[in-house]
TrEMBL record:
<dbReference type="GO" id="GO:0009055">
    <property type="term" value="F:electron transfer activity"/>
</dbReference>
<dbReference type="GO" id="GO:0009061">
    <property type="term" value="P:anaerobic respiration"/>
</dbReference>
<dbReference type="Pfam" id="PF04879">
    <property type="entry name" value="Molybdop_Fe4S4"/>
</dbReference>
<keyword id="KW-0560">Oxidoreductase</keyword>
<keyword id="KW-0004">4Fe-4S</keyword>
<feature type="domain" description="4Fe-4S Mo/W bis-MGD-type">
    <location>
        <begin position="44"/>
        <end position="100"/>
    </location>
</feature>
<dbReference type="GO" id="GO:0030313">
    <property type="term" value="C:cell envelope"/>
</dbReference>
<comment type="similarity">
    <text>Belongs to the prokaryotic molybdopterin-containing oxidoreductase family.</text>
</comment>
<keyword id="KW-0411">Iron-sulfur</keyword>
<dbReference type="InterPro" id="IPR006963">
    <property type="entry name" value="Mopterin_OxRdtase_4Fe-4S_dom"/>
</dbReference>
<dbReference type="GO" id="GO:0030151">
    <property type="term" value="F:molybdenum ion binding"/>
</dbReference>
<keyword id="KW-0479">Metal-binding</keyword>
<dbReference type="GO" id="GO:0016491">
    <property type="term" value="F:oxidoreductase activity"/>
</dbReference>
<protein>
    <submittedName>
        <fullName>Dehydrogenase</fullName>
    </submittedName>
</protein>
<keyword id="KW-0408">Iron</keyword>
<dbReference type="GO" id="GO:0051539">
    <property type="term" value="F:4 iron, 4 sulfur cluster binding"/>
</dbReference>
């Protein structure tokens, strides 16, 4: 390889001597980058969504191929984020396809050191039994002569990964159960 050809392969040289002085096109491309294809080019469909991490509500495009999520990117049509995502939002794909994602109910007994798998029905029954017991034990009909009809036996703290509809339903459920201590991480 001659020196002239070697220098001609430098992006800065191509930028300075070619038709791309700002380095936004051909000057910035190499042979390897020419052969690259976007990982979203094979997607069957694009589903509009909202980032689940905080209350900002950045728009996301979820790319799906064969009923599997293959990529999640910022939605340029979103008036909130205009296609941008923070580092947590950019890592949203890990929520659906990450190797660390758990697909089973795990339970650690009181004072236990190991996690054990439970089937979903058993876990739901345990939660229901504990909610009923906490409600019954912490129920207050009145306090200081004022009618309260509430329980201080449990509280709710929602996560920012819940959307508005899920938070609305959880608020309604906890209110119907008599809980008054209901908050959401997105507001905290």
């Amino acid at each position: 390889m001659g020196v002239r050809r070697w220098i001609g392969s430098w992006p800065v040289y191509r930028q300075a001597t070619g038709s791309d002085p700002l380095g936004r096109g051909a000057a910035a491309k190499s042979g390897a980058s020419e052969r690259l294809k976007p990982r979203v080019s094979t997607a069957d469909q694009v589903v509009k969504s909202v980032c689940p991490y905080c209350a900002v509500g950045c728009g996301q495009n979820v790319y799906v191929k064969d009923d599997e999520v293959v990529q999640i990117e910022g939605d340029p049509d979103s008036p909130v984020s205009r296609g941008r995502l923070c580092p947590k939002g950019s890592a949203t794909l890990q929520l659906t396809t990450g190797p660390a994602r758990e697909h089973h109910v795990l339970y650690r007994r009181p004072h236990g050191t190991e996690w054990e798998r439970l089937d979903l029905d058993t876990a739901m029954d345990m939660i229901a039994d504990r909610v009923i017991a906490a409600r019954r034990h912490g129920w207050q009909w009145e306090q200081d002569g004022d009618r309260t009809r509430r329980t201080l036996g449990f509280a709710g703290l929602g996560g920012a990964t819940l959307d508005n509809e899920e938070n609305y339903l959880i608020k309604k459920l906890f209110t119907a159960l008599g809980a008054v201590q209901i908050e959401n991480q997105a507001r905290v």
